[in-house]
Amino acid sequence: MVIENKISKNIYLIGFMGAGKTSVGKILAKKLRRKFCDLDEIIESECGKTVSRIFSEHGEDFFRDLESMKLRSVSKNSGQIVATGGGVVLRQVNWEVMERAGITVYLKTSPDVVWNRIKNDTSRPLLQVEKPFEKVNELLSKRIPLYEKADLIIETENQNGMAEQRRFFFGLVEHGIKAPVIIKRNYSDTPFDEVRLYASTDLGALLVDGFGDGVWITVEDLKTNESSKNIYIKSFINQNESEQKIINRLLFGILQATRTRISKTEYIACPSCGRTLFDLQETTEMIRKRTEHLKGVKIAVMGCIVNGPGEMADADYGYVGSGVDKITLYRGKEIIKRNIPSSGAVDALIELIKEDGNWLNYPQIE
Fold first, then answer.
1. Best exposed site among 162, 204, 218, 353 by fewest CB in 10 Å?
2. Please, what's the b/e burial string for 281-307 (b: 16 or more CB within 10 A of its CB; e: otherwise)?
3. Does 83 have pLDDT greater than 90?
4. How large is the greatest C-alpha to C-alpha distance in the chain, in angstroms?
5. Is 170 among the domain residues?
């Protein structure tokens, strides 16, 4: 049976402890609108005991029998995302069940990465030994050949892993696999403006090429860049927002910039030069604050009349400096109002948008 046909059945996530099977499985299930099953959680729920306690009271063989039984039970249904335990691959009977009922995906991780994720986790029964790191290496060396029997193997721990991820997508295309893919990257101890730069290149380069159906980043210890003089960046991150909301904003921005998903107003600005007749960043921010809720509308903010109209691309509206304290407004490439005072130019832009029926009142929060 080819992989594409098997994907319509169950997707079994396999890999060592700490590989992220549960986390990835929940996100994948939500994306694919499928039921998510975690074998360890099912066993704990039905036995009324943690996996660690089952190991200590009844031994590993007893647990493996339970695991095989629950795997067979879960696999009677189809269309599920199933996160398995790290040792599910040890029994051939489990492989037969998974191969018959769906596709297996190996989330591959190195011993060092695994150790950093689980070293403080006391719930892992197999690591309650005198030298747990050595135990991790021992178990991995035995299990890797088994994990690598999976239909798909997904791995990248390279900080510059975009090329590796692109190669992965090429592999999907070559094999005719059309399963949705979420692109994930991790960043740590990094200022926000650098996270924005790295995520835009790591994720955006793939999305522009048509690879990927969703994006996901994790950021450990997100930092502000106090030395930055960029007004937009500082106002963007210094609001009373949670870290998760800041990251969500960034990801929606990347999706919009790559035309993967349009969720807000789009702004096009020139790079600014000696001919720029107003504070470009301040003016763009002022326009953004009043128009950012207009989903799908494109507004170009250009510093001067020399190159501005040619750089507006496919903007719906143009706000172009045409003299000292003078602004010319465009609808597409057509001049609508010429040389109006800059003090009332934003209001005039909003009136033009309203005239075209593209204005929406700000949603009221009750």
1. 218
2. bebbbebbeebeebeebbbbbbbbbee
3. yes
4. 84
5. no
